[in-house]
Give the backbone structure.
Amino acid sequence: MRGYRPRSQVKPERPTAPERAAASLVRGAVRVPGLRRFLLVPVIARIGYWIATGLAAAWGWLLFGRHSVQEGLHVFAELPRWSFGRGGTTIGAVYLTDDALLPSILEHEAVHREQWKHYGLAFPVLYLAAGKAPGTNRFEVDAGLEKGGYPRGGSRPAARS
């Protein structure tokens, strides 16, 4: 997999207050001459990616997660449910989860790793601005809703095996 390229331009319906705030922040940042170009320069984005990876790995170790490397991700499993979002969360090159380790889910999370590489520390703000509903969040759609365990509508994670 070479670099991340967005495949969709899906916009969220009914954004929440944090999503509206993130979207406003993104719109404001885009208006600052050169800021968008600067944040997305591969060297700058990659630095953000490594910072995020280091912090997430520290979080996984701190919570005594079981570490392994799968699909190019540092996977920390058997973590408490409160320590990550939905069925699992990818931050940089680190995937934090309790037991969501199906190959299709790891493939989905590997796309999020590529998104982190492309956007760096701008990714969390862009992700939040894209909306909480997986079916309308362009980053989740690009990663593959069904691979991520979401049903076709993308409303909530499907049962895991």
Observations:
- The CA atoms of residues 84 and 96 lie 6 Å apart.
- The mean pLDDT is 87.
- The longest strand covers residues 66-70.
